[in-house]
Every structure is written in structure tokens, then in C-alpha cells.
């Protein structure tokens, strides 16, 4: 593994982040990044009013059903799937581009 950059050697947080990114990408063992190869999860929530932000997020439908009565008439149950991919290192270009 290449030497780790020291934050004291950089004038800005961005410069330090770029240096750590370059070091990570140059690491010959970089394939051993944390996490798994990805997963999909379902999340449930309540839409208090049409088009409003989702509230009472839960991974179980029963939990949101129990909360539904706490909202005014017309509140709706909503769901979404969240896809988690494998982790990868952030590139210096992504850091520079914000």
C-alpha cells in the first residue's frame, strides 16, 4: 500500500482528498474495498398529502400502516426500492468537479 497522505501537508481539504484518492487508486490491493457486491432493499413511508415529502420511513410495511392513522385523511402509503451497489474509490476528477 502506498504511503498515506498527511493532512498537514495540504493547504485545503480538497487537495488532501485528491491526494488520498490518488493513493487509494494506486494501491495494488484496492479490489479489497469494504462492502459487498450490492443489494436491493424496499422502504415504505407515508405521503401526508399528494406530492408531499415522504414521512415515517420504515423497512416494514406494518410499521407504516400503524402510523397511517396519525396523519390526516388522504395520506397514502408509498414504497421505493433502494439499490446499493458495490463501493468504489472516488476519483480525483470527481473531487475536482464537486
Protein described:
The protein has about 100 residues and is of the alpha+beta class. It has one domain (about 5-95). It has three helices and three strands. The protein has a three-stranded antiparallel beta sheet, with helices on one face. A hairpin with a 7-residue loop joins strand 1 (about 40-45) and strand 2. The chain is elongated and about 60 Å long. About 5% of the residues are buried. The model has no long low-confidence stretch (mean pLDDT about 90).
Could you give a short description of this structure?
The chain has one domain. It has three helices and three strands. The protein has helices spanning 13-26, 61-68, 92-97, and strands spanning 39-47, 55-58, 76-84.
Work out the strand percent: 15-25%
Morphology call: elongated
Radius of gyration, CA atoms, in whole angstroms: 21 Å
Helix content: 25-40%
Topology, please?
Elements: H1 13-26, E1 39-47, E2 55-58, H2 61-68, E3 76-84, H3 92-97
Antiparallel strand pairs: 1-2, 1-3
Observed structural traits:
98 residues; alpha+beta; three-stranded antiparallel sheet; 3 helices; 3 strands
Amino acid at each position: 500500500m502506498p504511503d498515506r497522505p498527511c493532512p498537514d501537508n495540504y493547504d485545503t481539504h480538497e487537495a488532501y482528498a485528491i491526494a488520498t484518492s490518488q493513493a487509494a487508486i494506486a494501491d495494488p490491493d484496492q479490489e479489497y474495498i469494504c462492502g459487498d457486491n450490492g443489494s436491493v432493499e424496499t422502504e415504505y413511508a407515508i405521503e401526508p398529502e399528494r406530492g408531499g415529502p415522504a414521512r415515517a420511513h420504515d423497512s416494514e410495511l406494518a410499521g407504516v400502516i400503524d402510523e397511517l392513522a396519525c396523519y390526516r385523511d388522504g395520506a397514502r402509503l408509498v414504497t421505493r426500492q433502494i439499490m446499493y451497489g458495490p463501493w468504489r474509490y472516488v476519483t480525483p476528477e470527481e473531487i475536482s468537479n464537486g
